[in-house]
Amino acid sequence: MSVLTDIKARGVEDILITCTDNLNSFTDTIRTVFPEAATQICVVHQIRNSCRYVTYKDLKEFTKDLKTIYGAVNKDAAAPALDAFEQKWGKKYQYAVRSWRTNWDDLTTFFDYPMEIRKIIYTTNLIENLNGKIRKYTKAKLSFPNDDAVKKSVYFAINKI
């Protein structure tokens, strides 16, 4: 929470939307500090977490059925797709289906936005990719003499990407 309160103390008054993997209930923390912010749980992380419980034999069909949910044209079309998914897989993979139900509102925020930007909203993979490249670039240097050196290194890493 301290990171978010620090951001707010620096003058950020509102955040339009956040996408998180919801570790340690980070979504709830965001709502506490920025109550007007729309929150989206990363769909890709949700899929990965759901698939942990699925046998290899069912995996292809299971993920295909999941795609009918997050690939729907809108939330109204996604809801019956989730119902059908639950009907088909609910008994066999209760935890996976329950997780989609429990997180439904935060998994479907991206439907409130134009189709062209939804994929950017529903996944944290872009920022994770960027962070990984920065980490790779800065890891080559074992230590930095000061904070400015770190900032410069990150700046160069981003420009190199």
Automatic annotation (TrEMBL):
Pfam families on file: Transposase_mut (PF00872)
UniProt-listed GO biological process terms: DNA transposition
Entry's Gene Ontology molecular function annotations: DNA binding; transposase activity
UniProt KW keywords: DNA recombination, DNA-binding, Transposition
Cited InterPro entries: Transposase_mutator
Name listed for the protein in its UniProt record: IS256 family transposase ISCp1
Taxonomic source organism: bioreactor metagenome
Lineage of source species: unclassified sequences, metagenomes, ecological metagenomes
